[in-house]
Specification:
The chain is an alpha+beta fold and 308 residues long. The chain is built from nine helices and twelve strands.
């Protein structure tokens, strides 16, 4: 059984993103510090367009959810927040919160969706009969019940050959369309990768233990441009300066998840004491073993990037 969450969706957010083709991910933000537990990764968040439309306009595959300062949400997703600028994002949030004190460090809920689908108006879908105009945020529909299954079928059938799902990976190699509803494995984009790694490491640098969120970065072990993937096992959460020297190859992580510093760092940078003191320290690893750094990516960084 798969859940779908119909969420009340800002029409301006929808229209802005619908005009941008082939988006790999979007940030479905909430103006307050709201946690979101209605879906598990691979289930669908469905866009219910607000009045006067009152139709379903599309959906996205749920990847993860996080509370982020507005500034960090903008740095992570940019226009994929559904607005053209940081000021526009801040103004949109302030309008919903009726709060003139909204600033760069104000936290918002960020529900990260991958492979979003924005249907053209002629393909918008009627809401389920049980939907009520009094619903504030949204409602869960399960495919184990008739309304949920009908919604799933109408969404997938409505895409047709002109709106395929080209990048969807269906869990367990099952068929998502015209068959039993199944989880869709989210293919993360850059923003979703950053959020996933940040949460996997508990918002704390894996080696320095720093907790200042704007100072942390999700580092790719093997760069995306070199064939690395936007997946949590290809990421480590580092302080930004450590991320920089990691990318430059002056530090690495060995097969035992120890932080290793090159002997060249002192020669090149004339000090390097901040990094040398961390040499040999074991990383703080994610609680989920499936999110630990992949040994194959670690080996690549050791042999192809680390200067020794």
């Amino acid at each position: 059984m798969i859940n779908l969450f119909i969420a009340n969706t800002d029409n301006g957010w929808f229209d802005f993103l619908a005009a941008q083709p082939n988006l790999p991910e979007v940030n479905f933000w909430w103006p307050g510090e709201m946690n979101f537990r209605a879906l598990q990764p691979g289930e669908l968040l469905v866009f219910r367009l607000k009045s006067p439309r009152n139709k379903i306009g599309g959906f996205g595959v749920f990847s993860n959810h996080s509370l982020l300062p507005i500034q960090l949400a903008w740095e992570t997703f940019g226009p994929k927040n559904g607005v053209a600028s940081f000021d526009a994002l801040r103004d949109s949030i302030a309008r919903y919160r009726n709060d003139n004190t909204v600033g760069p460090n104000t936290n918002i809920g960020c529900t990260v969706l991958v492979e979003p689908v924005f249907l053209p108006p002629e393909r918008w879908i009627d809401l389920p009969p049980s939907w009520s105009s009094s619903i504030q945020r949204g409602k869960v529909y399960a495919t184990g019940h008739s309304e949920g299954l009908d919604l799933w079928n109408r969404l997938t059938d409505n895409l047709g050959p002109t709106l395929p799902l080209p990048n969807f990976e269906v869990a367990e190699n099952q068929q998502a369309r015209y068959g039993t509803p199944v989880l869709i494995r989210p293919r993360l984009g850059q923003g979703a990768f950053r959020v996933a790694v940040t949460e996997a490491y508990g918002r704390q640098c894996a080696v320095s233990d720093g907790k200042v969120l704007p100072a942390l970065d999700a580092a790719h072990i093997k760069p995306y441009g070199k064939g690395g993937q936007h997946v949590a096992p290809n990421g480590i959460l580092f302080r930004k300066d450590i991320h920089s020297v990691f990318d430059a190859g002056y530090v690495t992580v060995d097969e035992n998840y120890r932080f290793v510093v090159s002997e060249q760092i002192k020669e090149v940078f004339n000090n390097g004491e901040e990094y040398i003191r961390l040499h040999g320290k074991f990383l703080r690893l994610p609680k989920q073993r499936s999110e630990w750094p992949d040994p194959n990516f670690i080996y690549w960084h050791n042999t192809e990037k680390f200067v020794g």
